[in-house]
Amino acid sequence: MHAWPASEVPALPGKGRDLQIHDTATDGLVTLDPGPVARIYVCGITPYDATHIGHAATYNAFDLVQRVWLDTKRQVHYVQNVTDVDDPLLERALRDNVDWVALAEKETALFREDMTALRMLPPQHYIGAVEAIPGIVPLVERLRDAGAAYELEGDIYFSVESDPNFGSVSNLDTAAMRLLSAERGGDPDRPGKKNPLDPMLWMAAREGEPSWDGGSLGRGRPGWHIECVAIALDHLGMGFDVQGGGSDLAFPHHEMGASHAQVLTGEFPMAKAYVHAGMVALHGEKMSKSKGNLVFVSTLRREGVDPAAIRLALLAHHYRADWEWTDQVLEDALARVDRWRAAVSRPDGPPAEPLVEEIRAALANDLDAPAALAAVDRWAALQQERGGTDEGAPGVVSRAVDALLGVAL
Fold this sequence. Notes:
This protein is of the alpha/beta class.
């Protein structure tokens, strides 16, 4: 599976700062020092509907991570998956009486278009669950053969008790885990499981549903968590720098994935930092496909909304915050992009280097994009009030906003 084209990231004078970011596992800030190549895995979409603002906010956060690392003159090895076979996709295809493969391909293509328009840097490896199946099957077999997995009516389950570090990502108690498991794709009430929290690794073939040859596992399809583990271990190995996604993935997805990987390899932890973006609401409720309260990026683009304004609307909120999309949020972003473009349209202005360092400092401090935007606002206001004599400063500011914030002026 191919990703989307990369937009050029302008080179800036000087060098960026190491990133300090909030780690869910320790509930504190950690300073990441990845070495010459930074490694990041971000969980991708289940492609049964278009990209909504909540998706865009999540991918924007991890795009900033990449931009901070690139500004430190590091390379970035970024991997993202596509869950192109799963219950929600099959259910949507059945509801709409369309082929599930065609639906997945259509929505993945639209996602690529949205990411391109928003200038999100693409992953080096963009892997679908279906194409990862040949690498998933051996991992499930290894877990089963090691006694860390068991069979139940043809399905294969992972035993959470096989990982002494289970629970170290989300730090939730058992009651909270069980509740979230039921809400987020698990089956804690299924009879016969050794532990209600045990997640499925391999689902035996069901009538009328797609299935693949699973070798000694029989025909079936992979569970959700083992998909990302297989892709991450194949392309990044253990101990990569950032495991990213929305806050709703901390449990069960990232918790279970970490346990799978740790039992498979005998190493801990799977990732140096587990980083989670907040949720975006509409009309007082979290934006989600199940509720249907969605604002789609593609719809905004079709209505003629400047993608730079959409991106600024996302950047106006700290990545870890839960916030609500409103008409005012978009209006403020449209006004901001107009002010910034007017400010950089002149041949000279106030000195740019202090602003570049302010943006760098803000982003290095747990991706504080709102502080970075406020710094650019102050420069633009000063430019409007009295201008400046620094020739070329507007060009430097324009390149910095593009390189560090992903906004093309």
